[in-house]
Amino acid sequence: MTAAGSTVSISPNPKFELSPYLFMQFMEPLGTTDSSVEAGWDFVNNRWREDLIEATIELAPTLIRWGGCLTSYYRWKEGIGPRTKRKPMVNLCWGGVETNQIGTHEFLDFCKRVGADPLIGVNFESDGRKPWARPACGGLRSAGPKEAAEWVDYCNNPSNKLRQENGQKEPFNVRLWQIGNETSYDPDGYNADQTARRTLAFAKAMHAVDPDIKLIGWGDGKGWTAKVMDAAGDHLEHIAFHCHYGAPEFISQNGHLQDPAKAWEMLMDTVHNVEEQVQRMREETKDYPVTVAITEGHYTLRARNRGDVLSTWATGVSYARIMQAYERNGDLIKIATLADFCGNRWQVNALMIPTPVGKTYLMPVARIMQLYRKHIGKNFLDVTESPEGLDVTASRTGNKIYLHVANTSMSKSCTVKLNIPGLKITSGKVFEIVEEPFKAISEYEPDLFTNKEHDLPADSTWTFPAGSVAAVELTVKEA
């Protein structure tokens, strides 16, 4: 079924600049929960798996973060130097023992090989969590401002002797660093006042080593942004929030799809939950000259992100709507991600690494990030008219205008004429992903959900199939 013809109109006037870091990924060793970083390392040849490198280059992330909950007990010096001398550590959050074969050098080498900028999260005194600071297995896992500053020096000081002894003569020049991770999520950890005071101490120590680094402070909690900014705002570039969005048990009961039509409706409506969270971020930051870094965000379903619905194209369309919500709020959001980065179990990952054998492939969320990342302009534009059911965002660089389009109907295609007042469309390309809504990707069919390229007809009319996602590139000139 096809909806009646209508118009998509775009204002050609730039509204605000979009950050390239809306397409971040984050790398965190997840222990026995999901063999993520360990699964991506070739231990026989002491290097990253080539299939992971190739898939990441295809994904084309702009920024990769090291850390997560791991940062609360990670001692970075254990992961540098000769691998035979590196000290293993208990992964207190995710289970198992980390070999520390992947550390600072390996992470930054990965970023360089895939063309992504690095972001490092430091150990923020275990975020005040005593069981992680001094675990029952022994040892001190908390680290203070001095250790964070030493890490900055190790990475950025051209004359750092320890880094040079470890084989890296030139500095890594890591520009982005995060202080605190989910600090407000544990009532037994630091409270907002403690977080504010300690953020200032960390920021001063890190900036004393390199005043040019950009710092991210933790602010995701009622009233937390105000206290952290009042104390340390002069040192902070961004405030970190996490944006987790779930789906009712009805969609994925113990990982299995129940009612496809109802599931589709709920997946399409997930964007409203995201929009509510973004509005909360606006309220928390409105009185301060700071922007938001969503350094973690993904679906959370029952069975710890193992719900098979996450491998379906329906979830891909839902992710497209969430990505477009971030774009609409790009004046506020300067760093964002839609997924965990890689692993062999959680279907919330962007990249799935089959183990013990198999080739890394892109999950539906990764296909969305890849498509939108490769076809986006520098400045956001307003969409002034679009038909019901068609979610459209627009951006521009020079004489190129880009559209991101998600057809949120599972059954109706939608034919539209593209219109830009004051400009003439001289040519266009449509990069489109169309698939059955609940068809699922797997290691046996890893090439599903790839986009097909089409020429836009001369009359600038296009039919967006039901449940499709597209990026449209338009070349324009003055009318």
Number of strands: 28
Q: Give the name of the CATH architecture of the largest domain.
A: Alpha-Beta Barrel
Largest sheet, spatial ordering of strands:
3-6-9-10-11-12-15-16
Overall shape: it is globular
Looking at the structure, the CATH topology of the largest domain is TIM Barrel
How large is the share of residues in beta strands? 25-35%
Uncertain residue ranges: none
Amino-to-carboxy terminus distance: 34 Å
Key traits:
479 residues, alpha/beta, eight-stranded parallel β-sheet, 2 domains, seven-stranded antiparallel β-sheet, Immunoglobulin-like, TIM Barrel
Would you kindly provide a written description of the structure presented here, covering whatever features stand out?
- The strands form seven sheets. Strands 3-6-9-10-11-12-15-16 form an eight-stranded parallel β-sheet. Strands 2-20-22-23-28-25-26 form a seven-stranded antiparallel β-sheet. Strands 21-1-24-27 form a four-stranded mixed β-sheet, with no helix packed on it.
- The relative contact order is 0.15.
- The mean pLDDT is 94.
- It has eleven helices and 28 strands.
- It is α/β, with parallel strands linked by helices and 479 residues long.
- The protein has helices at residues 50-59, 104-114, 130-133, 145-156, 161-165, 192-209, 224-232, 260-285, 302-305, 313-328, 364-374; strands at residues 2-10, 16-17, 24-27, 41-42, 47-48, 63-66, 89-90, 97-98, 117-122, 176-179, 214-218, 236-246, 252-253, 256-257, 291-300, 333-336, 340-343, 349-352, 361-362, 379-381, 383-385, 390-397, 400-407, 413-419, 423-433, 452-455, 461-464, 469-478.
- The protein folds into two domains: 2-13 and 380-478, Golgi alpha-mannosidase II (Immunoglobulin-like, Sandwich); 19-375, Alpha-Beta Barrel (TIM Barrel).
